[in-house]
Amino acid sequence: GDSVTQMEGPVTLSEEAFLTINCTYTATGYPSLFWYVQYPGEGLQLLLKATKADDKGSNKGFEATYRKETTSFHLEKGSVQVSDSAVYFCALSSNDYKLSFGAGTTVTVRA
Amino acid sequence: DGGITQSPKYLFRKEGQNVTLSCEQNLNHDAMYWYRQDPGQGLRLIYYSQIVNDFQKGDIAEGYSVSREKKESFPLTVTSAQKNPTAFYLCASSTAGTFGSGNTIYFGEGSWLTVV
Asked: Which residue in A has a C-alpha nearest to residue B10's C-alpha?
């Protein structure tokens, strides 16, 4: 079945540092890939998505590229801020009505 | 404002009791979902509904029940059969269609359920 594997956290960074969160997946066919962000005490918000190979999703300075050859969708941001502290989830859907989520990676950015 | 409203935000349940979590959306979405979130784990799908008066079990439906009598409402009942109900519950909705087409799911702010 479909599955997503994220790098384990927690991740602690200083402001303006480079952030990368690894995400790899296993799926049948050609899934759509997503990154969601969850701020403390809130539900999840869509951060970015990519629906086909080589697509790059981007939003709020975050980027992720759909790499079919390595089955990966790593999240990156060049210069993080304290407000980026949150839990980040990688997710996929193989053209059905379900989303499969990774375990989440907690990111803390220190001033 | 358009969105998904979950209530209550915090709920305490005694052993052996059923409790119902409310989820209402005014986004005019056809599809609605319930997920459970446990610490250190990703979200797991409990039930989903693509249309009024129809719903399907997700990966962890045992001990839960739902109804979909109205398009905007999708309440979740956590029954006494659910052996480990303490968790964060998230309701979500989306337009009709599969996520493979890039369809986006929107989440409510969640409900914390604790068994006491």
From this structure: A41
